[in-house]
Amino acid sequence: MRKLRTLSTIVETGVIAVIRAECSGSATRIAEACADGGITALEITFTVPNSAKVIEDVTRRFEGTNVLVGAGTVLDPETARIAILSGARFVVSPALNGDTARLCNRYQIPYLPGAATIRDIIEALESGADLIKVFPGETLDPSFIKAVHGPVPQASLVPTGGVSIENVCSWIQAGAAAVGVGGCLTAGAKTGDYASITRLAAEFVDRVQQAREQCVQ
Q1: Which of 107-111, 139-143, 211-215 has the weakest average pLDDT?
Q2: According to the model, what pLDDT value does residue 106 have?
Q3: In total, how many domains does the chain have?
Q4: Which of 139, 186, 192, 217 is deepest in the core (most CB within 10 A)?
Q5: Range of the structural domain that residue 19 is part of
């Protein structure tokens, strides 16, 4: 049930904030700014210094709320295990790692492996992935989602990289289950402008919902 709640929360809001920072303090402030803007899935990447401690601290900060903290840039099962013990509710990788998939499945933690081809996506589905990170999004475009859903309509895809406020609606309308957003959302942290992150987070969430409503009409 916990896994289902995690997946439902990610898809309902439709935005995963991908948090990279040069120090743990900045990563924590970015996470708080994103949550203040309504993003409920916060991916702390393992490129952040002391990332496991950041995951633990941010998880504690949002305990009792609907905000989920996950781990990103997870390359192996050892790192995934550390992340899960630190409180991560989902695990994201740039590419599929079978051992990581098995570990996450064992503990009922959603695993989002990266994929850039039909073959990658099918292998991710066979590994048990419920959501698949389409990566790197910069080299693809929304038409990729539509093309994949021709032969593999059951794939729930989450484009990451290259998703911006200008094109997020196109990704959702093409059939993306959610999107992962990094630098274009969190850039304000470089100048200490965390308020801009909150504003952008709210705009991303709004645009995802608007795009979904337009698809229904």
Answers
A1: 211-215
A2: 96
A3: 1
A4: 186
A5: 2-114+177-212
Find the catalytic residue in 12, 32, 63, 133: 133
Residue 70 resides in a domain: yes
Q: What local confidence, expressed as pLDDT, does residue 216 receive?
A: 58
CATH of the domain at 8: 3.20.20.70
Residue with the two structure tokens 């305990």: 63
- In this predicted structure, the answer to whether residue 12 has a pLDDT above a threshold of 90 is yes
CA distance 59 to 75: 21
pLDDT for res 138 = 87
Tokens of 139: 């080299």
Would 129 be classed as within a structural domain?
no
Tokens found for residue 125: 């589905």
Nearest of 84, 112, 100, 101 to residue 16 by alpha carbon: 112
Three-state DSSP state, 40: coil
Q: Is the pTM of this model over 0.70?
A: yes
**Which two tokens mark 31?**
């996470």
What are the backbone angles phi and psi of residue 110, rounded to the nearest 5°?
-55, 135
- 43 assigned to active site: yes
Could you tell me how many residues make up the chain? 217
196 in a structural domain = yes
- What local confidence, expressed as pLDDT, does residue 1 receive? 78
Q: Which is the catalytic residue, given 12, 22, 43, 166?
A: 43
Q: Are 105 and 111 in contact (CB under 8 A)?
A: yes
Q: Is 133 a catalytic residue?
A: yes
DSSP 152-166: -TT--EEEBSS--TT
